[in-house]
Amino acid sequence: MSEDRQQSVLPLAGQVAVVTGGTRGLGLAIARALAASGASVVAASRTAHPRHVETDRIAWDRVDVTDPDSVKALMNRTAESHGGPHIVIANAGINRNARLHAITPGQWQDIVNTNVNGTWYTVQAAAAFMAKMRRGHIVTISSCMATHPARGALAYATTKAAIPTITIGAALELAEFGIRVNCVAPGILDDGMGATLTSNADLWGPYRKHLVMGRPGRVDEVGRFVANLVGPDGGYVNGATIPVDGGLTMWR
Description:
Blueprint: H1 3-8, E1 16-20, H2 25-36, E2 40-45, E3 58-62, H3 68-81, E4 87-90, H4 105-133, E5 136-141, H5 154-174, E6 179-186, H6 193-198, H7 201-208, H8 219-229, E7 241-244
Parallel strand pairs: 1-2, 1-4, 2-3, 4-5, 5-6, 6-7
Helix pairs in contact: 2-8, 3-4, 4-5
């Protein structure tokens, strides 16, 4: 099969995707999975240029998701340079490990600004472009902690619990424009924040015994799930929050 023919049968060929927080951990795994499915991907972050990220199908750009103008500028640059965006993954998120009595107002605001406001601004900016095309798919990223908080991560869990509501409301409002909006809620993963959690006995202990599959998930497993969700096989999924957690949600 020729390279041109091979590319033409990839499910996301011809589509442009933006992944915020896309230069490490889960975000990078999602960017790589989207690229492997044929999409041209912009992996965006507020860090310095991470040269290990870029490939033939993945480019890097800068964004601060807590600044709505920065997010709009990212979408503008993507549209001008690549077209689209047809797929946007609102993945950027942070955590500050501190218990309720110890977390500072500044830490709380940082988490809310990135996880809630950043998701809102990303969905809003993506929708503005997709509505003109009357097509598109937005994926937000929640967490198993939204329903199963850990000691020391209550602030993070609280912000992640807001993401499904943003998702449902956006799906309801944007369906008339041909835009689907879904949420993925990963479990404990082997990279990024998940790796930090597994190395923290206070956080990891309560979760470990509830992993019915006996292991943390791999970020590449979640990345491939997201790529399938935004492709043709996910065409009738809308407004859903989907746990990809190895059965952790069975924990009651």
